[in-house]
Amino acid sequence: MTKTTSTPQVSPRRASPARGQVPASAGEYPNMAAPFDPGSSADMPLTRVLHFWFEEVWCKGNLDAVPQVMTQNTLISGAVSALAEPECDYREVVAALRNLLGPMKVTFTHAMETRDWVSVRLLVDTSDPKDGNDFQITGQVMARVADGKIAELHSNMDYFKMFEQLGQLPPEAMAICMTGERLR
Fold it and tell me: pLDDT per position in the chain (184 positions), as tens?
């Protein structure tokens, strides 16, 4: 017996986003990987906003997409928040970090959302552009979405590992710091 699979039909209204809305098609996110599939997750619209954010801004480097997803009043917290607030344009932060890394592929391993909050655990596959060595960074992002844009963004990424892999911190820097020793 042959097993047949059918592709779910998408209404024309859902097939293309309205102006200013985040696209929902998985084909529009070539650098984003499963398990989150924005094309089949109609019940997770806030996760789709973060998916678009990472694909367009971080993976593709489309800095013009920042105002599509964030407002000038977006509250940002995390390791780079001091660089992003209050006067700094977040595009400058993105550009600075992207200049340190090779091409990126982001995978959401976990996603949860409520009425206006979304939280994801993610893996970033990238490389050191100086030598091409591949490495992975993990992180968690939590965001409040209002009117289709990120109103609050709370991010925790493993920057220690990133800077170790880029040769800016010694190997096992976290373990060294936990012993009370200073990095030299």
Answer: 444 444 434 334 333 344 444 544 545 555 555 455 555 555 678 888 999 989 999 999 998 888 899 888 888 888 876 565 555 677 788 888 899 999 999 999 999 998 899 999 999 999 999 999 999 999 999 999 999 999 999 999 999 899 999 999 998 888 998 999 988 7
Give the whole-angstrom CA distance, residue 102 versus residue 163: 13
Q: What is the pTM of this model?
A: 0.73
Q: What is the 3-state secondary structure (H, E, C) of the chain?
A: CCCCCCCCCCCHHHHCCCCCCCCCCHHHCCCEECCCCHHHCCCCHHHHHHHHHHHHHHHCCCHHHHHHHEEEEEEEEECCHHHHCCCCCHHHHHHHHHHHCCCCEEEEEEEEECCCEEEEEEEEEEECCCCCCEEEEEEEEEEEEECCEEEEEEEEECHHHHHHHCCCCCCCHHHHHHCCCCCC
